[in-house]
Structures are given as structure tokens and as C-alpha cells.
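Allow me, if you will, to draw on your knowledge of protein folds for a short while. I have a record of one protein: its chain in single-letter code and its fold written as C-alpha cells. The full record is reproduced below for your convenience:
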Amino acid sequence: MRTESENTARVVVIGAGMAGARLAARVPGVTVVGEEPHAPYNRVLLAEVLAGRYEPDVIALPPAEVRRGVRVVRIDRAERRVLCDDGGVIGYGRLVLATGSNPVLPPLRGLGRTLPDGVHPFRTLDDCLALRAAVRPGVRAVVIGGGLLGVSAARALAECGAQVVLAQQGEHLMERQLDAEAAGMLRRHLEALGVEVHTECRVRGLRCTGGDTPAVRAVELADGYELEAELTVLACGVRPRTGLAKAAGLEVRKGVVVDDELRTSDPYIHAVGDCAEHDGTVYGLAGAALDQADVLAEVLAGRPAGYGGTRALTRLTLRSPSVAPAPSGAAVASGTSGGLDLAAFGDSRPMPGDDVVRLADATRGAYRTVVVRGDRLAGGVLFGDLAAVGTLARTWQDDEPLPADMSLLHLLTNDGGF
């Protein structure tokens, strides 16, 4: 067995995703252990890789020293070391769990521990590359799940020329972020790209070929209807990876429980990103993972810092397959040339006593609604030109009171930040 001497000052990070890579960039001398064979990458842009808009190297994060393709199998808290599947043993002074999350595999008939040929999760770069290799013009693809990930996957597959069906169990697309009217606009845009959208549609199972290597042939719905499928994408959400933490005896609820210094129930172990639960919330968002990594970098450096939560804005850009991609970093005008730009933040579902302001412009393909609770923004949804999204988003993210002399209608005009 290969053993490394323990250094009580050493910071070891388990996980080379966005949170682990951010921490490595902020804290000198960090040892990062990552299961994936790839260098750290921006997971938010996987749909762009699937669509062929970007190659994998374009979404790579700044270089970091990572032990790639190595899985930590056990945490020895008594000796303060981690044991790896390659026989390595790494001592730590502080350990950071950045293990991320796994895709949820729904309990469908025909879906076992080994996925049939043609069935793909959509969580990692390897998932993305396998799906890109399998898709071809005219292939029949069914995406199960109508959240942000499912919508992104459906759009990307349509750009590749696939015949795409999107099956969503809920009443409308992206239920966590959008109200019914905004979801309807999103649905119409996807349908204009050739995506067939089914809502309130419960999937019961998969029909696969027999033999030693079963392959998917159809997706079976609860009403008995079948959607023909050569490819099936599982976009049913994610679940925090907490197995290591549980086995080590750390406090785990939905995620690994952490305090404001991202410290777990063991004072020498921290957790950040999708696996962490702070103040009862598991965010599962890139913005929260980066915020937590930045706070933890200050904590590990001995500087006073505390994490108070993340107020993240969800943004999605959809383009028509006929529209050439913009150069990297270029702004894309929304609502033009067959494109759609969407931003959603906070809680767009009004409560009794809230004020709601809504503007719709069918000519420009724009829709804007905000919910005001007391003197603060509670949330909102916006379609169309989002060039000035920053002012209102910053007001919400900073939880600032609205100016007393600002009318609610003014919030949604360009002069008011939109």
C-alpha cells in the first residue's frame, strides 16, 4: 500500500467539480482527488457540448492539480486520512467534501442497475459525450423530466437533428422557476424547434429488447401509450452524494449538514457544493457552490467569514438550430432570430398580500413579471431582451429595499433596470 505522511496543515478536497476546482484556485497547496478522468469543467455548459456548440476543452476550468480517476472509498476520522481505490492513503489537516450529486434514476419498469443501451443520464461530461456520440439526425429521442436540465437536453438534441419528445410529470415546464404563463411561452418556443412536449405525463417504464444487452425501444406512459425511443435521456433531478459522509458518521439529512463556516459535525471536515446542506437547504446550483467555496477559502486562510446562503438567478438561452452560435463571450439578443432568453429568480408564486406586476409584449416576444413582498422583491420571471437584467437581479440578490419613490410599473421598464 502506498502511504503518504500526514501533514496537519494539508487541505484535501474530495471532488473535482466546480466547487472543488474553485477552492483549489483560491487555496494554495490543496490536494484534490477527483473520480472523473477529465480536468475540472463547467457543468453548466454541458448542453452546449451536447449540441456541438462547444468542444469539451472550451468548458474546462482554470488548471488545477487534480488526482484524476481516483475514488476515495473511506474516511478515517480517527487518523485523519482518506483511503483511495488505487491503494493510496492521504493524510489531512482539513478535509473538504465536494462530492456533488448523482442523477436520480426513477423507479421505472425495465430500468435496472445497469442501464439498457440507449438510456443515458445527463450529469457528467462522459454522459454528455456518450449521448453526443449516439445522437444522429432523425433519431427518436425521449427526454424524461421537464426541469432546467431536461429542457436544456431537449433543446440540444433538437439542434442535433433528433426527433425529440419531452415528457414532464408536472403541470408545466420548469415548475421550480416559472409560473404557468412563462412556462407556456417556453413550451411554445421548444415546439417551434420541433420538440414535442407532453406535460402531466407520468412515465411507467421502458420497453426494451431482450437478450444479454437489452436496448430501449419505447417509453411506456401510465395511460398505456408508448413513445417510440431509440434514445432516452433521464433528467429527473439530482440527489446529494452523501455516502462517504454517512459511512464516516457525519451528520447527514438531505445533504451533509454544515454551519456558517461550512463545517460539518466533525470540526476538521467541511462540505461545499451540491452535497452540502446549510440551514436546511441543499441548493444544487453552481452559484451556491462557488459562493460556498469562496467563503471556505477565507475560513481556511484564518480570516473571518461566514456563509449566509445564496440568492441565485437561473438563466437559460435557447436558440433556433438555424441560428449560428455567437462567438464565445458575445452577448446574444433574446427574442430575435428564433432565440429566447429567460431569467428567473426567487419565488414567482405570489402569497396573500403580495403585489404582482406583469407586462407582456407579444410583438417582441417579451414577458416580465415580478412579485413584491413588503418593500422587497420576492421573485420574478423575465423573457425577452435581458440586457439590463443586472439592476433588478442585484436588488433581489442583495435583498435591498426598493426605493420608496419607485412605482411597481417602473420596475419592469428599461429605465427601472429592465
Observations:
- Residues 76 and 82 are 6 Å apart (CA to CA).
- DSSP finds nine helices and 25 strands in the chain.
- The longest strand covers residues 366-373.
